[in-house]
Amino acid sequence: MSREKTRGFRVRIAQELYTYCAFWIAVSTLPALALSYVVVRISKHLWIKLLSSRYPHLEFIRTDTVRSLLDTHRNQGIINVLIGVKGSYNIEQIKNILTQHVIDRRDNDGNFMFPRLRQCLVSCWGNYAWDANMVFRPENHFIVSNAVYRGRPVSDANIQDYVSEIVSKYFPSDQPPWQYIVIPCISQEPKYYILVRVHHMLLSGTKSINIGDLLLMEQLTPEERHATDHGYLSPLNKLFPTPKAIPELLGKLNESLSNVWNEFISEYDPVESPRALKSMPGAFHVAGLLLISTASAVRELRKKKSNERTGQTSVTPASFISTIQRECKRRNLTMPKLIISPLVTADPRKWPRLTVEAAWCTTRALLKLPFVLKDELAAIRELKSTGQVQQTHTFTWRYAELGQTLAQAALEAWRCAAEVYKAPAELWSDTVGADDGKRHFLQTVSLCGRKVVSWSRPVPRASIERTGRALGVSATDVALFAATDAVRALFESAQGDTPDYVLATARAAPEEFLFTFAEGDGKEYKKSHTGGMVCLTLPIGGTPRRIASVISEACQCQKALSGAWALQTRYGALTRSVPSPLARLTLNLLSRRYAVSYAEINAPPEAKARTTLWKQTVDQVIYWRPPQANISLSLTVIQYADTVRLAVMTDARLSPSHTVPANRWPAAVEHLVAKVDQEIARIEAQAQSSGIEQTVTIETGPAAPTEIKSHSSEATLKPPTTDSFTPPPTRKRLTQE
Question: Are 621 and 640 in contact (CB under 8 A)?
C-alpha cells in the first residue's frame, strides 16, 4: 500500500512539473507569437495590396480560415445539404422564391445582399479572390434533374447512388461555386429532394450567406430560438462552462456607470439642462463640457461610419477635431470661457464660504460616524443570518448584491486562470502527445480529393433517448457507440486489421446552425453557436458506457483545446497569428493522425418537422461536412424532428465501402435498443415475482458487457442507477516514454 501511495505521489509530482514547464514554455513564446501576429498582418496586407494593384478587377479575400488553408484544387471544401420534401414540386414556385429571397434580394441601400452568388471564385498566387467581371446565368445554378440514373428513374432504391455521383463532381471553374438541384423521385407518396451545394468561401467573410438562406426553411421567432438554446442535452454542447457571474458583474457595472453618466450630463450639459450655464463655468465645469463634447463627437462619428449611405468609411484626425468643435459650439463653450475658467475657480471671494462648508461637513461626518458604523455592522449581521438587509440607508444594502457578484466573479476568474495555467500541457497531450497506436488504412490511404456520400435510414429518436436513460448515458453516447461499430464494419469490409481504437475529432451544433438566415442577427447567432472541438480515443467495439466515459473525460480535460478551436472559428486566432505555411503543415500532420471526423446536429426536445417557404413539409435533412487535408472519413449524426440519421462522407478511394457505415449504424442502434428493452422486460418480470435484486448483462460487442441492475419491482422502463465496470481507455503521452 505504501509503495502505491509513493508511486501515485511521484506521478502527481511529475504531472505538476510537466504542467509547470509547459506553461512557462508557452509564456516564453508569447513575445514571438505577438511578433508573428504583427508580421503576418503586415505582410498579408502588403501582399494583398500588391496583388490588388496587379489585378485590379479582382477582390481578394483578406482573412484566412482553416478550410481556406487546407483547400486544394482536388480537395475542395464543398458543403452539401440534402432535404426531402413531401408533396409534388412546382418548379416555377421554387425558382421564384429562391430568386426573390436569395439571388435578387436587396439590402436597404438597393444593393445585392449576397453579391458573391454572382461572382466567380478564383485562385491567384495562392490567394482566393472574387471576380465580378462575368455574366451570371441563374440557369447554371438552379438545376432540375432529369431524374434518370444509369437508364433507370430515380427512386428510393438508387437515390443515394445518384446523389453521391453529383457530390463527387467539382464545380465548373468559370461559374460561381454553388448549385441548387431539384431531384424528382418516384415513391409511393409524392415527394422530391433538393440538394444544396455551396463552397465554404461563400459562407464566410463579408457579404457572406448562411446555408439556411439556400435551404429556404420557415424561421423561428427570436423568442422560440432563444428557448430552444437551453434544450440541447449533448455533452459535446457543454465543452466549457459559460461564465455567469462575470457577465452579470459587467452588466451591473455598466448600469451603474450609465446612471452616473446620465446624472453627470443632466448636471453639466447645457443641451440637456439649460440651467447649467446660467453662471460663468469654472475649470472643472469646462473639463466636464469638453468630456461631454468628445463623447458626443465619438458617438456621432461611429454612427456615420456604420451608416453606409453617408459614404464615409474612415475617420481622420481633422474630421474628429471639427466634430468636437461643433459639439462645443452647441454647448456655447467658447475660447474666452475656456481661458477664464481657472480664474473663476480660483476666485478669492469663494474661499470663506468653501471653508465654512468644509468644516461643517467634516464635523457632521465625525458626529454621525459611530451611528453609521453601528448600522453597517447590524446590516452585515442581518445579511449573514437572513441573506437580506432591511436597513435601506446603509452601504451594505446598497452594495451587498454587487459585492456578492464580485466575489463570485473573482472565483470564476480564478477558475479561468487555473484552466489557462493547465491549457498548454493539456493542449499538447491531447493533440501531439496522444499515442495513435497501430496505424490503420484510414490514416495511410492515398486520397484523391473527390467525395462520395451515403446516409442511413432513420432511427426513432425516442428509442435512442430511452436506451440512453436505461443505461445511464446520453443519446450522444448511444449514437457514437453505433458509429464506432460502423467504423469497425468499415475496417472488416476493407479486409484490413481492425485497430483497438481510432483517434477522432468531435463537435456539435444546434439545428438552427443550419436553418437560420443571414439577415438580422443570423450571422452573429451562427458565430456564437460555433462550439469547440475535442479529440476522442474511440475504442472499437466499446460499450456505450465506455464511450460515455471517453466523452466525459475528453470534455473535462480538453477545455483548452475546445476553447482554442472556438477562438479560431469565431475570431481566426490561429490563422491571424501564425504564418499560413506553418499552420497548413501543422493541420496536415494532425489530420493524418485524426483521420475520422465526427459531428452532431442536435435538435431540441419535442422538435417538429420544418416547412419550406412555399408551405411544404420537409421530411428529412441530411448534412455532410467535407473532410479536408488528410481526413478520410466524416460522420455526421443529424437529429431532425423525431428521427436520427447518420450521414457519411468519405474520399472516393474508399468507394464502394463508404456505404458500409451507413448500413451498419441503424442496425447497431436497433440491436442495442432491442437488447435493452428485452432485458428490462425480463428484469421487471423477475423482480415483480421475487422482489430480489437481479443482475443481467447485455452483450453489445466483443468488449466488456454492459450491466443493468434491478433492486425492486418498480414498473418503469428505466432501471435504477447503473454501475460501469469498464474503465475508460488511457491516453498515453509520448512525452512520458
Answer: yes
Q: What is the mean pLDDT of the chain?
A: 83
Q: Which of 407, 411, 478 is nearest to 676 (CA)?
A: 478
Q: Give the burial string for 548-572 (b: 16+ CB within 10 Å, else e).
A: bbbbebbbeebbbbbbbbbebbeee
Q: Is the peptide bond before 656 cis (omega within 30 degrees of 0)?
A: yes
Mean pLDDT along residues 501-525: 86
Q: Angle between the 283-306 and 317-330 helix axes, to the nearest 10 degrees?
A: 130
N- to C-terminal Cα distance for the chain?
25
For residue 209, the surrounding DSSP H or E stretch is none
User: What torsion, rounded to 10 degrees, do the Cα atoms 113, 114, 115, 119 define?
Assistant: 180
pLDDT band at 384; cut points 50, 70, 90: confident
Q: φ, ψ for residue 271 (rounded to 5)?
A: -65, -40
The predicted structure's pLDDT at residue 700: 52
User: Within a 10 A sphere around the Cβ of 33, how many other Cβ atoms?
Assistant: 11
Q: Which of 608, 621, 641 lies closest to 214, judged by CA? A: 621
Torsion of CA 46, 49, 51, 56, to 10 degrees: 180
- Decide if 505 contacts 533 (C-beta within 8 A): yes
Extract the C-alpha cell encoding 325.
468643435
d(CA 447, CA 721): 46
Percent of the chain whose predicted confidence (pLDDT) is above 70 = 88
CB of 483 within 8 A of CB of 688?
no
Amino acid in position 411: L
Which residues, 6 or more positions from 24, have their beta carbon under 8 angstroms from its beta carbon?
none
CA torsion sign for 706, 712, 713, 716 is negative
Pairwise CA distance, residues 608 & 641, whole Å = 5
CA torsion 652→657→661→666, rounded to 10°? 120
Residue 47's closest CA among 26, 61, 27, 31? 61
CB 486 within 8 A of CB 672: no
Residue 177 near residue 198 (C-beta atoms within 8 A): yes
Residues in the chain: 737
Give one DSSP letter per residue of 374-392, joined into a string.
HHHHHHHHHHHHHS----T
Residue of 475, 478, 474, 470 lying closest to 710 (CA atoms): 470
pLDDT of residue 621: 95
Q: Which of 493, 464, 593 is nearest to 537 (CA)?
A: 593
Q: Residue 99: its pLDDT value, please?
A: 94
Q: In which residue are the cell numbers 479575400 written?
A: 61
Q: Give the separation between CA 236 and CA 529, rounded to whole angstroms.
A: 12
Instruction: Give DSSP secondary structure letters for 79-111.
Output: EEEEEEEES---HHHHHHHHIIIIIT-B-TTSS
Position 397: which residue type?
W
460/476 Cα distance (integer angstroms): 14
Residue with cell 467581371: 133
CB atoms inside a 10 Å sphere around CB 651 = 23
Q: Could you give the angle at which helices 544-557 and 559-571 cross, rounded to 10 degrees?
A: 70
Phi-psi region of 207 (alpha: psi -120 to 50; beta: other; left: phi over 0): left
Round to whole Å and give the CA distance between 549 and 475.
14
pTM (2 decimals)? 0.79
Q: By three-state DSSP, how is residue 592 classified?
A: helix
Q: Where are the alpha helices (DSSP H) in 331-394?
A: 335-345, 351-386
Higher pLDDT pick, 370 / 647: 647
Task: Note the pLDDT tens digit of each residue in 230-251.
Answer: 656 678 877 766 778 888 888 8
Strands 191-199 and 152-153: unpaired
Cα–Cα nearest to 144, from 79, 106, 111, 193: 193
Residue type, 54: R
Task: Indicate if the pLDDT at residue 691 is higher than 70.
Answer: no
> 615, 533, 608: which is closest to 574 by C-alpha?
533
